[in-house]
Design goal:
By secondary structure, this protein is of the alpha/beta class. The protein is built from ten helices and 13 strands. Helix 4 links the parallel strand 4 and strand 5.
Length: 335
């Protein structure tokens, strides 16, 4: 049975940018606590991010990215899509599925569903799409992602401890991405393997609790977490997990041409790369100039290298997803 492939990929950012210095100023204005100047960029390495406007939602950016993909690839039309998956860490609302809102915005007329697993939402959606295509259920699947996570960053902090707990939210950036998956590969090209692992003991270490039945207070609409514990968990689980996936296919990390990894901060990325033996040339670093764009990270990296013409026939690509909960995912592809 032939493998499914990533046929097309596109991304779009909101027009507004915000530097880390500007974010610190907003925190000083909104709250009772004044963070040390330069602390956000010093700790995260993030210089700037793209910020959605008041009338931009998860669906808004997913719609914009999908329309851009259609414009860039005339052979792909809304009528040619037979499944639409909305895959993001955030949603417009709890119900209905945000995929319905995206569908109305882009003019498709197909089955829809949402896939949500924090920053691994895209990678899990790719797993679902791959399975559907291999079983013959669908032929051409659009995975649309829209992240407006900057809206969950708490600005009105009251103390140093409040600032520390809210700090992961200051890494966020906003984005829309769109990916079309089809059955166009062979036995040795396309999506070769996908593997996932989770350690759910860490579910309380990164939360955006508002809206769920467990947390309904107004104070729970902001992101909070412990980045250091998540980092330790990923570095404990990740390297051996990645090594085992590659060993299954008689590969080593040096054999991979492109490694697209979820990125929370520059030091976090560099530490994980060092632990796994990954070279800088293999990775598309994005976090320093657009922040942590959640489920949009992997398709963004693919889109950037594809646009520059750097994805060549025969290249091996490794997608590495890291998400709160915690969960890890790896996808191995050959172009």
């Amino acid at each position: 049975m032939n493998n499914s492939i990533i046929f097309a990929c596109s991304h779009i950012f909101p027009i507004t940018t915000q530097t880390s210095t500007e974010l610190e100023t907003a925190i000083r204005v909104e709250g009772a606590y004044a963070p040390q100047p330069g602390i956000i960029e010093s700790i995260t390495g993030i210089k700037s991010r793209f910020v959605s406007g008041p009338q931009e939602y998860n669906s808004t950016l997913a719609i914009a990215a999908s329309k851009k993909l259609f414009a860039e690839h005339p052979s792909i039309t809304p009528n040619s899509i037979d499944l639409l998956i909305f895959a993001s860490a955030g949603q417009d609302m709890l119900e209905p599925a945000t995929a319905h809102i995206v569908q109305m915005g882009i003019g498709t007329n197909c089955a829809v569903l949402d896939v949500t697993n924090a920053c691994n939402s895209f990678l899990n959606a790719l797993e679902v799409a791959n399975a559907f295509i291999k079983t013959g259920s669908y032929k051409r699947i659009l995975i649309a992602t829209g992240e407006v996570s900057t809206k969950s960053a708490k600005l009105a902090v009251t103390s140093r401890s409040d600032f520390k707990q809210s700090f992961p939210g200051y890494t966020f950036g906003d984005i829309g991405t769109a990916v079309v998956v089809t059955n166009g590969g062979s036995e040795i090209t396309g999506i070769i393997d996908m593997q996932f692992r989770a350690d759910s003991a860490y579910w309380e270490k990164a939360m955006l609790a508002g809206g769920g039945s467990r947390f309904q207070g107004a104070h729970d609409v902001y992101f909070a977490g412990d980045g250091s514990e998540l980092k330790d968990a990923f570095e404990h689980m990740g390297p051996e997990f990645i090594k085992n996936v590659l060993a299954k296919h008689q590969l080593q990390i040096a054999d991979i041409n492109h490694i697209f990894m979820h990125q929370v901060s520059v030091p976090y990325l560099e530490s994980f790369m060092n632990t796994c033996g990954i070279k800088a040339s293999q990775v598309e670093e994005t976090v320093s100039w657009c922040g942590n764009v959640a489920a949009g990270t992997l398709p963004l990296a693919w889109s950037l290298r594809s646009t520059r013409g750097e994805l060549k026939s025969g290249d091996l690509v490794l997608l590495v997803g890291l998400a709160g909960g915690v969960s890890l995912g790896v996808a191995l592809l050959r172009i």
